[in-house]
């Protein structure tokens, strides 16, 4: 009987455990999490902050007997080290767990910026349920809330904070909002939208210090900005980004770059040890290099693939999904593929400022390789298909450079032709 140990009980860990159980009914499975609560989804925390769900609504599996029924054992622990020769996971409390096959599914951890005062009471990340409880206590109507960071996670949190009726100020050190998934045109349009909804936004601005306010003010905290302003705050939220949670792999035996390097089966350089989700770094066929794609659909796909291979079934992951779809206070935006473009490539932009609509397409020769879109929700599926399938557009590229709204016609004409050629070629 094979013993499978999974480090991390977020979506990737849970899905992998279920995949192993499906294909290996007799094997032992241990799921190690670092919080003494049932496995839950961080993506559900904004809905908890809005009051749409309770804490149980964040749980990944609503049936309390789900894991015991599947004979998936659970353990609370913090991993210190992986002893590869002994095939053991060593925990911070000094205990160890033996494994035959191991999955690293530890996800991400928030980046803690090196700002004086970052450890003051009243400064929180919005990353786990403990954070959420603290934020709900402090984010009362009219509370002065300062959010550091206007990236993907920050924009999701904004809607929850706005729903709680706070006075929200967002401080972003980049020159636009969502700088890691949006270009200048899209990022600045999102900023204008947020300002129209009553959010104060500072870009190209840093928080230089967080201080306890003096007795003359009615706010417990004060921040000093790089533009010289001082702002009072009842709550400060740090949303300055995340990074793969892989510090316990510092020995270097398991190869890591930004994340844990894996092959198309999600196996690391060590046989029998796999990685999946936000901590995994896999090859992306669109960009031609390895990357971490910290989105839940990608984590789910990688986890199923890893779980099947751990259970002895052959499965491959055909690349990394570079997709972000974001709802910022009701404005839907998307970023696909190499949205920054490539050297020598062509691009087209279409802007309707009054209606908050924007579309930018990036080409490499006659292939659409990336896009930014705001308000063009009808094109999301088409953009994904053209970019992921690397469809050769031929003359349709020039048509799209003239009128990028003709994406559906281009997809029907070119993708169908490419699929027909591939079917005929494979039949030979």
Describe the structure.
With 428 residues, the chain is an alpha/beta fold. The chain folds into three domains: 3-108 and 243-310, FAD/NAD(P)-binding domain, CATH 3.50.50; 123-240, FAD/NAD(P)-binding domain; 330-427, FAD/NAD-linked reductase, C-terminal dimerisation domain (Enolase-like, domain 1), CATH 3.30.390.30. The protein is 26% helix and 29% strand. The strands form seven sheets. Strands 3-2-1-7-19 form a five-stranded parallel β-sheet. The chain has a five-stranded parallel β-sheet with strand order 9-16-10-11-12. A five-stranded antiparallel β-sheet has the order 22-23-26-25-24, with helices on both faces. Helix 1 runs parallel beside helix 7 and helix 8 runs parallel beside helix 10. The chain is globular.
The CATH first-level class of the largest domain comes to: Alpha Beta
Number of helices: 10
CATH H level of the largest domain: which superfamily? FAD/NAD(P)-binding domain
Derived from helix and strand composition plus strand pairing, the structural class reads alpha/beta
What is the number of strand segments? 26
Strand content: 25-35%
Arithmetic mean of pLDDT:
93
- Contiguous uncertain segments of 5+ residues: none
CATH topology of the largest domain: FAD/NAD(P)-binding domain
* Radius of gyration, whole Å: 23 Å
Q: Largest sheet, order of strands side by side? A: 3-2-1-7-19
What characteristic shape results from the CA principal axes? globular
Biggest pleated sheet: 5 strands, parallel
CATH architecture of the largest domain: 3-Layer(bba) Sandwich
Whole-number tally of structural domains: 3
